[in-house]
Amino acid sequence: MTLFLSKITSPYQALGQPDIVAYLASTFAASDNNLSRFLRENTSKPHKQLCYNKSSTKRILRGHGAFFSQQKAATWRIILTTTSNGTQNTAQKLSLWADILLTRANNGLHFASNIYDQEHYHKVREVALELLALASAKSVEDFEPLHADLFAHRAPIPVSDAAIIDEQGRILLIRRADNLRWAIPGGGLDVGETPAQGAVREALEETGLACEPVALVGVHDSRLCGTVSNAQLYHFLFLCRLKPGVERVDPPSHSNEIKEMGWFAEDVLPDDLDPGHAARIPEAFRVWHGDSQAYFDAHGS
């Protein structure tokens, strides 16, 4: 995406994507490295132009004056470009960024334990609403009736696990730092990624090992597989294999989440497995042995 700032009576001047992305990324870098990385990496070639009205421009620059003063905002307009193939235009990208911020803020407020974190996440919400308004050429006030839905902590929560099994038939498990039990690498999905991408990312963050998905083992409801959680979770479990020729990242970026990791044969699994994983590990081996049928819960609790 390229952001063009054009004075009404003068030729176009271009302010490149790195500038706007750098501003957004630096704003949230302290609290969310994943978001910062997403903003840095998401680029597209400028083609078609999508114009936003002057009031939208003034509102954004007045509330979050990254580049121009409030006075200049009255005489500048923003022209945002879309992708050439039309698969994701600028409005869609802005909406996705807003969705990322809203999800982070809602989850953060759900678990925040002090007033300082709560204030931070409320500010993130404000920025997300500004992005939604810009994407739709509406005012922030237009979203007031939707606050209950936008700010809800949604459940079920999607999570993805990577069952990495090597050529010797051993599965990679991690010992979690929070309860000291063995588990399959995995965790919550980020907005904008597929379940398979989430499983691969979580495995890399926790173990430092790069893997690739081979097959969907199944989708498990946390209430039906023994997972201990106050919220309902949907577990996406993928059979994965290590990427050949890729060295392990040491230490992993999220090494604080695990105590150790190890490879275990199917018949010598540790006794102290994390609740919920004991039921899903056999499913991973089932698919590894050649049964391609993905598991799903046909009936509720």
Task: Describe it.
There is one protein chain. 36% of the residues lie in helices and 23% in strands. The radius of gyration is 23 Å and the shape is elongated. The chain has a five-stranded mixed sheet, with helices on both faces. The protein has a four-stranded antiparallel sheet with strand order 2-1-4-3. The chain has a three-stranded antiparallel sheet with strand order 7-6-11, covered by helices on one side. It is an alpha+beta fold. The protein has two domains: 3-150, no CATH class; 157-296, Nucleoside Triphosphate Pyrophosphohydrolase (Alpha-Beta Complex), CATH 3.90.79. This is NUDIX hydrolase. Its cofactor is Mg(2+). Pfam families: NUDIX (PF00293), Nudix_N (PF12535).
